[in-house]
Amino acid sequence: MTAIEKWIQERILILDGAMGTMIQQYSLTEDDFRGERFAAIPGQMKGNNDLLCLTRPDVIQDIHRKYLAAGADIIETNTFNSTRISMADYHVQEYVREINITAARLARQMADEFTSLTPDKPRFVAGSVGPTNKTCSMSPDVNNPAFRALTYDELADAYREQMEALLEGGVDALLIETIFDTLNAKAAIFAAEQAMEITGVRVPLMLSVTVSDTGGRTLSGQTLEAFLASIQHADVFSVGLNCSFGAHQLKPFLERMAARAPYYISAYPNAGLPNSLGKYDQTPADMAREMEEYVREGLVNIIGGCCGTTDAYIAEYPALIAGVVPRQPVAKPEFLCLSGLELLEVKPENNFVNVGERCNVAGSRKFLRLINEKKYDEALGIARRQVEDGALVIDINMDDGLLDARAEMVTFLNLIASEPEIARVPVMIDSSKWDVIVAGLKCLQGKSIVNSISLKEGEEVFLEHARIIKRYGAAAVVMAFDEKGQADTFERKVEVCGRAYHLLVDKVGFNPHDIIFDPNVLAVATGMEEHDNYAVDFIRAAGWIRKNLPGAHVSGGVSNLSFSFRGNNYIREAMHAVFLYHAIREGMDMGIVNPAASVLYTDIPADILECIEDVVLNRRPDAAERLIETAERLKAESDAAKASGSEQPAAASARLAWREGTSVEERLKYALTKGIGDYLEEDLAEALRLYPKAVSIIEGPLMAGMNHVGDLFGAGKMFLPQVVKTARTMKQAVAILRPVIESEKQAGAASAGRVLLATVKGDVHDIGKNIVSVVMACNGYEIIDLGVMVPAETIVQRAIEEKVDMIGLSGLITPSLDEMVHVAVELEKAGLDIPLLIGGATTSPLHTALKIAPVYHAPVVHLKDAAKNATVAARLMNPEAKRALEEELHDKYRHLCEKSQERQMEAVVPLEEAQRKRLKLF
Question: Cis omega before residue 653 (within 30°)?
Fold first, then answer.
């Protein structure tokens, strides 16, 4: 414990008054400010008060002496503007280190001198750190709200330079004061930690805010409650208010701060309000009467004066504090506090915090298009509507292979800052790229959420990322992944989350309330039995986390649950409502959802609710099939209603109509599309009489059916469980044909081929890859599945060893796109000529054309859906068909690249024109 930390527990401490007001009493001239040393520097130097530490140190020491004689316990260094940024206005930025060290030593000398006279009343030096003359949260250009006059890093570097010098000069505390932009203050806090680490000197950190209006907000728009949440991560000694108004006008805001801040409270207001000439008329006695209320009502631990005050004002204070018991800080909040311009408290009684999901380029085609086309006004409209619809937090994700995610994240967050109706809520920075997350953290003055970190790269990286997030002052979503991959069962979820929690709390010192676990909301009703319990496992894990990991929260991407039913919005929203109903009761208190969703749990008809709960709660083995039937019935009823009463064929009479008067090819296609295996023996026997080889049936009518399935799935007209059912029907057909295929092989017939599949390094998702494996195996291909997180060198090595005919790369997250490019480069370096199949949620034909195909000479094929893999594979295995495919790909990719260039040219809009349309905060 430092001396100042000891003494503040025993009595109220007195801070000095204004430096500028005192300097004015000395009637200094331009020559006093310049001295001989700075005579040749251009421009006016008068007004650069901090430079007087070098040119008139006698004046500065005399001011310190007067304040100490008046009774001040703490004097501030004359360094309010002593940063490289502010001093650039006077062309003396190269002298900031000398100014700060000298200022600290001048104050130190005087404080020590008075302490020696009264050892029972030690005097302290606070290094004054002003806000600079620039802001990180607002644009100085009204026509370009995304512009910033300086970056977070530039500001933090300037602060660090100043603070290192102040610490070396011997200050007892660092006082970051007159805070009008919380982002500036966060940069100063960040710099203070760096400076103390570099110098090896730790001192208390003091913060003081100035409010800009009678609403009690900072100039950058934050409420005081939101400010406290924003700086909650820092090791703060005291927080308070200065400047702004006189003591009487400042009191309501001080009361608000004192009621919430778990720190010592400081207050040093102006000497009343200035008159029409900018002078302060309030006398020392008048100000003392107002300050007495602060002391008597237990609002403060430190009192002083700002603009207009002198040593005469400070001399009134010792009598005010005599015999007064100092204020005790309130307890720290035992809940998660987030903030934008306003505070969001995540308490048990809040029930559920919905995070708006639509500002995500990976989840909203419209938002992606708007960002691609630089139509930021419309993109901001999406964010605004989410807040209007009730989103308490908005998720921002710019991860797309064809976007500069970091630049777009910074631009959009800067634009949000100029939209108070959006900026009032906290932001969730959502990215798989660490540099994007860090860049986003440097844009937000509020307390945000990082989405996400995990153990998938090991403890060292996990702890490093957690420490950085803590230093920037954010909460963190922790995904239930580790080095083994995604936690899909209850046991794995609680194992990973428990391990991550103790690492964060015990090794990083992370506030438990700032930990938000995402135990992985995974798709149910996929047709795969192993997926049936995913929702139950999540719900159970949510309950376990809330009971066993004190303070931690539970969140998840709710839309993942219903991915199988994409295209049927009602069923999806109803599934979400059911899932949330049960998950929230167990402890899930946050989630990424569509805030405009209209389906409520209580509004779901009983029969539909039963079907959905059977799926979500895994209550019966045929739950998925029953829900599919329900979904199809609802769709049919909807279509019938749209048809305005037109006749619909009766289900009974239509049930077998597909078999009457149709060709075997049509019947096989229908059977695959509907997943009907009852007549395969009969129809395949007929096909064998028509086709020369069994493999021709696979390559012909069966693959035609699979191709049709792929088209329907891609258009959202089929659900995932239906596709899986189709794959199983295909597998059944292949099993019927296998004896014939084997006999053909013995007769010299070629096998289907060998396929290597891998989810690329950095990605642990494998559901899509597994579906590809099923489909390909059903078509007679031998699968070598390398699993997830597979490095490029392993892929190349195994491809050579296994003599594969093609390689399939899968990836779900955006960084996977870069890794796929890397794999292609390594295949080229190895001199291989193996076709490359590209698939996964974030992949696209355009990214493949622009990024992957140019670095690898062999065929590179983007495949949107698993069902199409076998069709393309069959063409690649046929020399003539392969040559034709290569020509098609060449033309297709060239066309895509040309179109991309055209769109980029069309999207260029003069910045001034676009920004004139924007509403301004100031």
Answer: no
pLDDT over threshold 80, residue 642: no
Residues 6 or more apart whose CB falls under 8 angstroms from that of 258 comprise: 265, 299, 300, 327, 330
CA 515/CA 228 separation, integer angstroms: 18
pLDDT beyond 50 at 588: yes
Cα of first residue to Cα of last residue in the chain, in angstroms, is: 44
Taking the CB of residue 88, how many other CB atoms lie within 10 A of it? 15
* Helix, strand, coil tally for the chain in percent (to 5): 50, 15, 35
H/E element holding 267? Answer: strand 264-270
**What is the Cα–Cα distance from 814 to 891, expressed in whole angstroms?**
26
DSSP string, 519-558: -------SS-GGGTTHHHHHHHHHHHHHHHSTT-EE--BG
pLDDT surpassing 60 at residue 198: yes
More confident of the two residues 908 and 131: 131
Phi first, then psi, for residue 230 (nearest 5°) are -65, -30
pLDDT of residue 646: 46
Q: What is the dihedral of CA 87, 90, 93, 98, to 10 degrees?
A: -80
Helices 365-372 + 376-388 axis angle, to 10 = 150
SS3 string of 426-483?
CEEEECCCHHHHHHHHCCCCCCCEEEEECCCCCHHHHHHHHHHHHHHCCEEEEECEEC
- Centroid of chain to Cα 897: 31
* CA angle centred on 38, ends 36 and 42, rounded to 5°: 130
**Which active-site residues does the annotation give?**
763, 765, 816
Contact 308, 394 (CB under 8 A): no
- Tens of pLDDT, residues 266-289: 999 999 988 877 789 899 999 999
For residue 376, pLDDT beyond 80: yes
What's the pLDDT tens digit per position in 308-348? 999 999 999 999 999 999 999 999 999 999 999 999 999 87
Query: What is the model's pTM?
Result: 0.84
Sign of CA dihedral 365, 368, 370, 376: positive
- Nearest alpha-carbon partner for 304 in 71, 132, 542, 603: 71
